[in-house]
Design brief:
By secondary structure, the protein is mainly alpha-helical. A two-stranded antiparallel sheet has the order 1-2. The chain is globular. Its main location: membrane. One of its GO terms (molecular function) is transmembrane transporter activity. It is found in: Cell membrane. This is Branched-chain amino acid ABC transporter permease.
Amino acid sequence: MNAQLLISAIVLGLSMSGVYFLLTVGLSLCYGLMRIISLDQFFYYALGAYMVYTITSITGSFWLGMFVAMLTALVVAFVVERLVNKRVYSKPVMFSMILTFGVNLMGVGLIKYIWGLTPKPVASPIVGRVMILGTGVPTYRIFVIALAVIVYFAVQYFLNKTILGTAIRAGIDDAEKVKALGINISRLFTITFLLSSVLSALAGVIHAPFVMVSPEMGMTITAFAFMVVIIGGLGSIKGTMVSALIVGQVVSLGALIWAPLAEMAPFLVMIIILLIKPTGLYGSKLMHR
């Protein structure tokens, strides 16, 4: 195998891992704390991509678009959480799954109404290439990898070194005990949901220059996102990062070996891991609602 192709594939896989991580860390936190499968995260992901497209087209500034996209997702997610999600926290998982899927479908419909069906291009905000072992790789991909690493450590610091984060982490292990201590668990739910939605929008923003922005882009990435969450273990940030790295590399290197492997191999890896460890790589057996 050509060494330059291999290096390019590894960097491509790492950058896709960054996108997967940002999108799935919110899904993992939502299930870990609230026991809901928040399928509307895929709407915030697509919304983030469309907002960065719009702001970049008007102002020429991708970075302003990134800020506006995350702010828009924050506002929309707050409205959805108040009107819809707050009412399903105590319901069975399937109930939340169907309801948030409905929110996702309505969001996709709204995107189609506003932006139309034609895919939109978003130019990379960082041009140029970086030489790695004699192979030139796009600088923007290096930026995406670095951003995902920074977000990972920022989320870990928030969860482990702050009082609010410690309460959320305790809620992931046992929400009832946290509630018994007098902590406002409802507020923790809201904060976690908003954090998840903003990260999903950020995933859409940084993924936009890799793909054509389209209304169905959230649907396209759904299967890979669920694989990352399940392999890593629900509620585990470390597991989500490790799993994103695995899936990103399996997809990228699989495509290099034989194109259909890019879609088949991640499912095979997931099945093997779940047969060995049914809770996922870092899933906890002690989580209770």
